[in-house]
Amino acid sequence: MGRTIASITQTWQEEEAALNRFKRALRKDDQVILDELLVMSRLHLAEASYASNLYPLDMYLIAILLEVYKQLKATQRQLFDHDQHKDQARLEEEDVFLKLITNYLEVPREDQQEEKASPQEEEELPIAEPESCCSYSDFEEAP
Amino acid sequence: MIEHDRSDSLTLFQMPLPPKRFLAIGAHALSDRMLQLISALALRQTVTVLDCGNRSNMYAVAKLIRPYTSDPVSVMNNIRLSRAFTCYQVLAMIQATAKNPPGGALVLLDLLATFLDEDVELKDSQRLLTHSLGILESMSHLAPVVISTRPIPAIAENRSILLEQLKASVDICWEEPLPLPSSQELQLALF
Amino acid sequence: MSQTYTFTGWLLDLYLNQEEGLSLWFISADDDSRVCFRQRFPVNFYVAGPNETLRALWKLVSGRLGVLSLSRQRKQDVFEEQPVDVMQIEMESPASQVKLFREIEEIYPDLTYYGADLTISTRYIARYGAFPLALCQLEVDENDVIQSIQTLNDRWELFPDLPPLRVLRVSPDADPNRSSVQSLLVHSDRFEQHLPLDPQGAYLRILDQILAEYNPDILVTDWGDSWLIPFLLKESEEKGIPLQLNRDSNRPVRWQKETTYFSYGHIIYRPEEAHLFGRCHIDRKSSMMWSDYSLAGTLEMARVTTLPIEKAARVSPGQGISAMQVITALEKDILVPYQKRQFEEFKTGLQLIQSDRGGMVYQPLIGLHTDVAQIDFISMYPAIIILGNISPEVPLPDGLTPADENLGVVPLTLKPLYEKRVAIKQKVRTYPESHPLVANLKERAQALKWLLVVCFGFLGYKNARYGRIEAHESVTRGGREVLLRAKDVAEEEGFEVLHMYVDALWVKKKGCSKPEHFTELIKKINHRTGLTINLDGVYRWVAFLPSKVDPRIPVANRYFGVFQSGEIKVRGLEARRRDTPLWIAAVQKEMINLLGQARTKDELDDCIQEAFNYYQQALQTLKTGLVLPEQLVINGKVSYALEAYKASTASVRAARQLQNTGMLVRPGMRIRFVYTRGEPDVVAWDLGVKVEPAAIDSDKYIELLIRAASSVLSPFGISVNILREWSLSDGLQLHLPTVQVMS
After folding, report:
1. C603/C597 Cα distance (integer angstroms)
2. How many Å lie between the alpha carbon of A138 and the closest alpha carbon of chain C?
């Protein structure tokens, strides 16, 4: 029969849209921070939905507080706690990728012609604009 | 005689509503405007909402009433609501409401939505609508009845008789102004 | 009194016989013959309403031809607290019942009708318990009229005594939408034959002979509805060569017209259907669930739902559930409403906000995780419906505790279905994978699973006779409660909950990497919830992917991983999407397979390298135009009439090409196309036009490939942007061997 009440994602999108004017008037650096806060608010949509509060915005604000406090606690732990419980963070993205490319180029293949690889790593890769070609939409969270 | 209210009023009809039948016609059955109306009514009194087209997004109502009340829960509890998904259910819902008439206003959202269902023969849709409108007519003597509907889409052109029937049955009708044609369409041919 | 004899056999088909009720076809258990009997089958329907109107109706129908009796009854309507007064109209046959009902509905449309539009098969099983492929014992008179019938087995048996069915497969040698058919392949358990479509029509004679001699019970075709049967009938008529497709030679093939309908958020198109008499026609190309559970599953579906085999093959499982609910109601002597009138009970605005919710869908912790257990509730919503006794006529439960001990129509219908599925799954686990019964049991379990999957949605379906939105909401409420209890237990036991999705949890705990490490957790969850949860498996690693739009935002149903068994699980990625070209899906699958070789975290680095190398080779293959166009076909869809589209998507452009050639394009139709260079930028695949590899717009497919590869590589630190930069650069040219990707 179809849902009647707006989904939690829809209400989130409405609240985000309501911030557009505020965001526009912010300085660019502050816009970036605001974006990060909005991402945090999205991390607890299921909980906000379950809460069934009349005002989902209140739940998004609580979610932001929660995430900000988590980060604060994590920072405190890093500063004062020398006992590493978590795995080391992965290498920088470019380092990982360069390693893959290097390995790929260095592995000998039977039918590969003898060609010197161009100094790809030193060249700046041309940036190609992605074409909006796909007819299907992004596969977001389930209804 | 039907009055046609052509003003672009924010609350559609002048409050407080007298015991009459009101009809509002517009895109999406004027969901936003109707939810504003429901909010305004709920702030004052109980309001019964019969949702015939899955339009009763109560989150929107909660947001609308927030600046005007310190007790939004009580205001939301002033709204008594039921949903119908077939025109048979719509009639049954109206019949049941008539048996227990509400104290305050009665609002019907997107009344014609289910009557356009291709699975229901036109003659059955007409019969059920006639019956429904008859009951609403008697209920409107006691309390205002506000109905919204969308214009009949081109694909259901053969059902426009239902809209005519509905228009003929109400006391006051408000129609959303049609959008202006695009400038391209207004371009006159040179030859 | 006429002499009778006893016949034992399996019911294959039954249909209306205009002369005397029903015709029923059986497969003899004694001599394997196929026999047709007739049976009188009077039926009832009921009418309720104001007394004076019923009196007028009584006068109208009393004494009419076909009316056997009129009586006053009191019967239960599930939506009424007290039994209702109804007029029972007993009719001589189903045909006369339908005729009379249509007539009186026209005159008295405001009366309430019950049992007015039931199918014959539904009525038959409710009366005699006989369902498709039921083993029956009959007493038959010398005129082949059934005097009595008794069913010897039931729908819920795990290993029922089934007939030795004769299945004949007939397929054209090519897709008739793409190219011209030169011959037919005819195949059974006894023979296989190619029949060239010769102009003289000799193939028609051979086919007719095969039908007469082999006498199949089931005719399985490809494109039978849309091409083969219309073609054969036309040829037979034009050439004057008889072709008896039906066992019942008095009948022509029955055509059910095409339809488009809306189901579960999708527009579905069903083409015209060819139905046979005395024999069942299944068109694999238009059988909704064939790819999921083929013949064994279809027959299981027919047995448990009692839908005729032809119908069970074609319709959605929702119709199966509907039929089952009606049978339960009839068995309990509950009225079956003709038109659903029940509307929602009044709620406040606040109550609507609280109740109009679905299952809980969490945001997973993005990234790569190792030693993760996935635990799933078995058929959670059906189990909640049964446990909570959720049914339209029963007070709704408080949480999960039922308000009434006596099961309502809906849980009564589901209970044996649920138990049978669980029993089959348990049985499968006792056999090795290679056991001959395993494939059959799995297909049957899959058919039952689909019925269970749709039963919840059906509870909230507007036209479902026993649907009720409050019951639907009660189920989701129960589901949320169950999932949260499971989460509570997991956290109490020291597990970290990485993700939750309606009826599944992903948990991990240091030191827990084997299935036995999760046994205690599962036991406790079962106890706390009252439902059964199962360990789906322990992942060596699983990657939860972010949104394609913003990599910081988690997405609930995009992940892939490898179980300890080596089995790979993929959700939400391009390889799982119907519209992804086969070749791209295959590349992605192979990349995941390569990653799946990693047994430990250390091995993962090597496997990532392998996957990347594979991607590189695939990219070069695509860039050099070596991928066959048929591997790049996209399965689009048009959901609406073409005129309704304002924006012209690729699917719409392709559909218009088809329409311009005179092909009918209906809402819900699948439209296959490829992207091409220049104008037009798409070519509809079913135009039958040959598309050369050079014409393919490789840039578009490169982008699709990049996205598919990035989905797989992003958890390992490679973003789509960097992959795209690399992939689109011409700075490095390598000559590589052609990669043959298995479809």
Report:
1. 8
2. 7
